[in-house]
Specification:
It is built from eleven helices and ten strands. The protein is of the alpha/beta class.
């Protein structure tokens, strides 16, 4: 415990010394008094003895409670606080999911989002983001360590994908909104599954590529590599951009992936790895590999201050109550 304004305690101690000095001075001032004759009988009475004992006890309690009240008030004025310093471990790693939301990947996307929920729940300070793409890329979740928000977004994405089969039966606005959640901003007149553009969008959705090049960054890329349209950037060119920025790409593709060998070569030159769902536990393996990637760990100290007025308040209430009762009894 620490005092924010310790001078208040010193002032309280000064007032206490003044009270004690006045008490001693008054006691000596009236110690002699005037003598009365023939008081031995009265002094011998039990009732007199009891009243004198009560008087001395009450007098001590009055002074003690007054001193205690002054000290408690000074303690409160000094503003007692509990200062706690905690060391926080922070992982300086950014993870961006780049998800192809075209209809051919619905089953893979749902399974992956379910796995990602457990993965996100185990993160410790890393920033996590989601980019989705079809005809064009959209930043669904900016990089954040608000994992509850990420989990809610994954749940919404799962719901949007799963409702695709019943889309034509929807008549209420809520259902239409859920169905269109993954398509808002991703549809384009220039085609669909524009894969290279999607990966490049995910890369430049890292907000501080130039300002903090030392951060560990990676992209989890999910697509079937089936291009329908004319991209601005090819997959190979997007992978070159990632490699130049030291951003590793870990790709997950379904069994029906197009040009698997070329796609694998493009991914692996970023320093990442390629996985296919035909492999047993491919999703678990890619998430385990991502978890094992290099991460910069920093430790920071966070100091929190908590007011603790309760002891002073309780002491002030008790001492004030004792003083009031004793002073009333003594008719002060």
């Amino acid at each position: 415990m620490e005092l924010t304004h310790p001078i208040a305690v010193y002032i309280g101690l000064g007032i206490t010394l003044v009270i004690l000095a006045l008490t001693i001075w008054n006691a000596r001032k009236y110690k002699g008094g005037r003598k009365s004759a023939n008081t031995e009988f009265i002094r011998s009475l039990p009732q007199y003895k009891f009243m004198m004992a009560e008087y001395y006890v009450l007098r001590v309690l009055v002074v003690a409670s007054l001193v205690a009240a002054v000290l408690c008030a000074s303690f409160l004025a000094a503003k007692p606080v509990n200062v706690k310093t905690t060391t926080i471990e922070k992982h300086n790693r950014d993870i961006m999911i780049c998800l192809d939301v075209s209809g051919s990947l619905d089953e893979v996307s749902v399974d992956l989002c379910d796995e990602l929920k457990d993965f996100v729940s185990g993160l410790k300070g890393e920033r996590f983001g989601i980019t989705i793409f079809n005809g064009q890329g959209v930043l669904l979740v900016p990089l954040t360590d608000d994992y509850d928000y990420v989990l809610d977004s994954l749940d919404m994405l799962i719901e949007s994908i799963e409702c695709a089969e019943d889309a034509y039966w929807y008549s209420d606005l809520d259902s239409v909104y859920v169905y269109g959640y993954r398509f808002a901003g991703t549809n384009s007149e220039y085609g669909s599954s524009i894969i290279g553009d999607g990966l490049a969008t995910a890369l430049y959705n890292f907000p501080d590529l130039d300002e903090a090049p030392e951060r560990s960054r990676l992209i989890m890329f999910v697509t079937d590599n089936e291009l329908w349209g004319t991209p601005i950037v090819t997959v190979d060119e997007a992978c070159d951009l990632c490699a130049n920025r030291n951003v590793k790409v870990f790709a997950l593709a379904p069994e029906f992936v197009v040009d698997e060998a070329g796609f694998r070569n493009s991914i692996e030159k970023t320093g990442g790895e390629y996985y296919n769902t035909r492999e047993r536990k491919a999703m678990d393996n890619i998430l385990d590999k991502i978890e094992e990637t290099d991460v910069n760990v920093t430790y920071s100290k966070v100091t929190t201050t908590e007011d603790i007025p309760e002891p002073g308040i309780i002491g002030l209430i008790i001492s004030s109550a004792v003083y009031s009762i004793c002073a009333r009894r003594l008719r002060l």
